[in-house]
Amino acid sequence: IAALLEPSVDLQIPPSSTVVPDASPLFRMVHSPASGYGLVATEDIEVGTTLLVEHPVVIIPHDLESLSQMSDSVAPLLAKLPQEDHQEFMKLSNCTPFGCGKVEGIIKTNAIPIELKSQEDTDSNSIMYHGVFIKASRCNHSCSPNAICRWDLQTFTLHLEAVRPINLGEQITVHYVPLEQPRSQRRAQLQELYHFTCQCDHCNVPDKLALAGDDIRQQLLEFKGRFPSFEEWCFDLEFPDDLLIRANSRGLDLIKKEGLEALGREWHADRIAMCAGALADADLFTEWIQQVREIRVKRRPEQIGAFDRWLEDPTTFPIWNWRNQVRDGAPPQYEDGSLTRFFSPPPNAAWPHPSLNTQESKSQGRDSGHIDLPEGLLCATNIP
């Protein structure tokens, strides 16, 4: 790895054995006149499948605008890469305007935000950088992508994961810009950053359909601010019992209609399962915890035990019947702040482009808890 780092960065790179070998890759690289190189599925792929696990070949500071000032430092680093990695790096796309150096252009075109650990005593104990990944860089953009890139600092790898079924021969796509924006803004940003006009299935449509899609994206953008949190709903009986169940079911319908699974379908499924558990609705809980299980265990197989235990006996779910306990005048006891929503869009999700909404690319702070609740479900700590 060619890395240009600040002294405060704690760079602990695990051995390459942490990367899943591509013995039977689920994709192949193809070229088309319209979109250049891209990755195409070589078989039908299920939701949640990890398509690729990859170390970066280049790591550079977060401020790409100052990259030209670092050219004297970057070139010697690249020269130390293994010959094959160096050759593949130099083959990556460069969409920057004339006048930008080739190496600088390749980095600006392909850099993905990643989070590194800082040795300094800061609140987040992390610092943002950018990485260039040989294979993941070949993923083209779609405004309704079928995959996401997720950075895993622990293994120092980028994971490419399917967020909906991908058919044999279908192109594997990710998003370069925030998906909640209207078509006009998405296209404008893609033109500014990557110098192309998006012609994906959700952009190359009549204006009437594009406006309908824009409305759906706006609803999803505003979703979290329009409804109470799970904790607020659970302990405030003025909210209808089915409020969050209906709301999150609607959110899932909107996601499916607009092909926005990359925004986090599991966020809504989690909350429906939690509400069903708090209401002690065994049938609804079983239906939704099974769906959450299917979403999560491919990424975190060690969580299967917890899900299977809840499916076998829903009453073992840590927040089982809580809403009804509140109704009966005997609310469960817990410490203030001990209920934490773990889920935000997939942890350490990489992309959109580093110059856009950089705060969104940072992982969310997480409280720890001793109850075995898989990441993505409410974490309840200090519960009697």
From TrEMBL:
<protein>
    <recommendedName>
        <fullName>SET domain-containing protein</fullName>
    </recommendedName>
</protein>
<feature type="region of interest" description="Disordered">
    <location>
        <begin position="334"/>
        <end position="375"/>
    </location>
</feature>
<dbReference type="Pfam" id="PF00856">
    <property type="entry name" value="SET"/>
</dbReference>
<dbReference type="InterPro" id="IPR053185">
    <property type="entry name" value="SET_domain_protein"/>
</dbReference>
<dbReference type="InterPro" id="IPR011990">
    <property type="entry name" value="TPR-like_helical_dom_sf"/>
</dbReference>
<dbReference type="InterPro" id="IPR046341">
    <property type="entry name" value="SET_dom_sf"/>
</dbReference>
<feature type="compositionally biased region" description="Basic and acidic residues">
    <location>
        <begin position="363"/>
        <end position="373"/>
    </location>
</feature>
<dbReference type="InterPro" id="IPR001214">
    <property type="entry name" value="SET_dom"/>
</dbReference>
<feature type="domain" description="SET">
    <location>
        <begin position="15"/>
        <end position="177"/>
    </location>
</feature>
